[in-house]
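Ticket reopened. Same input as before:
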Amino acid sequence: MGELTELFQAVGRGDQAALNRLLSLMYTELQHLARRRLRKSERITMLDTTELVHECYLRFLKVGHLTVADRAHFLAYSARTMRSIVVDFVKQRRADRRGGGARDLTLDTDMIQTLHASEEEIMRVNEALEDLSKSDARLVQVVEMRYFAGLTEEEIASSLGITDRTVRRTWQKARLLLGAALEIT
Amino acid sequence: MKLSKEELITLSKLLDEALELPAEAREAWLLSLGEPFAARRSVLRELLARQASVSTHDFLGTLPKFTETTAGPDQAEPPPGVREGTIVGAYRLAREIGHGGMSTVWLATRTDGLIKRPVALKLPHRHLLLQQARFAERFARERDILAALTHPNIARLYDAGVSEEGQPYLAMEFVEGISLIAYCDLHQLTVAERVACFLQVLAAAQYAHAHLVIHRDLKPSNILVDATGQVRLLDFGIAKLLTDGEA
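Engineering reply: fixed in the latest deploy. New output:
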């Protein structure tokens, strides 16, 4: 039995320490994969989170941390991890612009505005999810899986143990709600 | 301003109710909302009206892709006529060693042999310089103050001026090193070692402040560490020099 499999079971029993361990393991692995990817494409940095999540799954599978039966659990937790990686990534870039990397930015204002809009969207979505984390846990999970990890409705449904229809409804509501949250400036 | 947490939670609950209803029943439901929810009526009405378009539209469908060039040399215009061998003031350009949005930096040597070692010659992009007419005079005054800074952790400013062609230049000590962050990462410094590096930064800043000069653009990329571990602050006070005191 793989290490992650054991952790999933412990987390299922409500073991908080196991959850921390699980998330930090995933964070390290996903971040490692993300960095490697970003290095490869030096000029244009794009983070394809969906690919990252799948690549990470395959790696864990290969080294025996996971069994195929864990896929559902894995997807849910990896989405949560992906959210913090993306948010940290945006925060880091903002910090770099204020300090470290400022001289590396071009003076192309169009591009900077697009950049800021993307980052702003991500930060706002993240804040809204924080606000809703207690009252609407399922919505938060669906948004993490759909928006941050780019998983399909089927993957989300099977991993959360709900129907495709419920996923679609939740997603639709999330988009209405987040739309409102993003609009007000 | 953003939607408050309470507002978001309330809207979420109300949407749950509304989305359960068939579309034609929603207006009646909206009108039946009592206090304190009546205040949300118009927002809800608008959101519900949007439902049809949201379900076909790709809003939030994918995470926005970040694209950012990691270096801007192609976009920034190099000063015209500047290339290897060009003479700027008393300096001959050898090779370009840095290029940013504000200026280009060349490794250069003095044509008169007054300084043997190569210098880092910073050539500010001319369009960034304000009030060209008063520039030279002000430049000279600031230059003298900055050139008086001598500290082991501050890259020296040797000279600054404007060439006959009108190109301003700053001749600075050439530091062979890498940026502070890259240095710390590369050598996997411990916290104590990082603090030791930072103390060198502080020593330089303290010295400059005692001479009434502030850096105005202190950041890790302006702090180099050489192979011996000595920290050097670059571009001390340059920001002010270039923007005519408005920085």
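Chain A touches chain B through 54 residues (CB under 8 Å). Confidence is low (pLDDT under 50) at residues 41-45, 101-108 of chain A. Please confirm and we'll close it.
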